[in-house]
Sequence to fold (420 residues):
Amino acid sequence: MNVAAGKAAMQSSIFSKGVPQKAVDGSTSRTYGADTCTLTEVEDAPWWYVNLLEPFLVQLVRVDFGRSCCANGVPATVIVRVGNSRPDLTANPICNRFSGKIEEGRPLFFPCTSTVTGAFVSVHVETPTPFSLSICETFVYTDQVTPVEQCPEFDQEAASVATYNGKCYLFYNKGPRTLDSATKFCSLQGGSLIHDTSPALQGFLSWELYKRHRKNPGSDYWNGAVRVPGSRDWKWVDGKDVTISFWSQPPKENNCSKFDGKNGWLWSDTECTNELNYICEHRPVICSKPERPANSTLLVRANAVGSTIEYQCNPGHLLLGPATRTCQPSGFFSEFAPKCSCKFRVRFSSQHTQRRLLLLLNGTKHFQSVVQYFCQDSYVLWAKRNLMCDADRKWDGPPPRCDRTYRAFTTLLMLQMLLQ
Fold:
């Protein structure tokens, strides 16, 4: 899933109307266009980045460039970084890099060569001469995101949905309510009014509200922080203390709070009897479709939260990992998808001679196959007759030995004498 679309972006400079947001606006082009592509000044080592608002395990980045580079076949170097440090620097880990010609409208794919997690994805271009960077669209793919399809749906109230950190946020702006009414409504729907914050969560909510109301920023939303009457202390509607706050200005005499569209969606105090828009927070109600490894059967009875799925490997394959996984409240299945090891064949010892015969009891030479040994007439079998193929791709013992009958008789006689 692409998690970059619509997120906040920045770049090293802006030329004309080539603002950085055009690289994540959902539109791309095979040729440079001022309406769809970013553009920096001509500069050394230009860069562009997007703020994903929360850390993701990034697996693939696609960049559609709007302008070619470089003249006379001189290669450019494109470096994609992922991390949580300042993205305009070079401190974040490298996802992947490319050296060669940048072609207008041609997408470049950067599969991350190592496990990289971060909220910032940046594109850095190094060229022998100053260069004007243009990107028509950037895609950042991960499978560790909660799709809105996993969120609850309610027919009686229209709401737009966004997900963040494994939770669903339903934005209601068609029927304003008082704080008490909004709190009860969210609870009856199985959710809750916003009752927590952090720098990352505040950034996410501010951005989502900005996207929805960039043309009418006067549409305020309830925040679940309320003041204890007669004191300076603020608590969340669930009774927890407010330890982090994002006030646009110090609160005055009002005992309730809102996300203030006229002040960058920071907090402002307000009267509790006002009717405002509101946001309900929910947990996902289902998990996404689980992965099915090759050479396996996946038994899925349901994908609701709390349900369990089961993995079974095809005959001759070994299950590596958990046999069952549970759909968790986060919307993800527990643990990780197992693997079914491919069939493998095991060679027999070169000591097989005419005096020793073998029989494959189940006709195969892979995991859990059994071989049974026999000796020809006038020979006696020593050691285990049946051997099984283990997960380490070896038989669970050395092949037995076949000795002539008289030699075996002599050996037994000597053992009896020693025991006496």
Q: What stands out?
A: Residues 348-352 have pLDDT under 50 and may be disordered. The two ends are 78 Å apart (CA to CA).
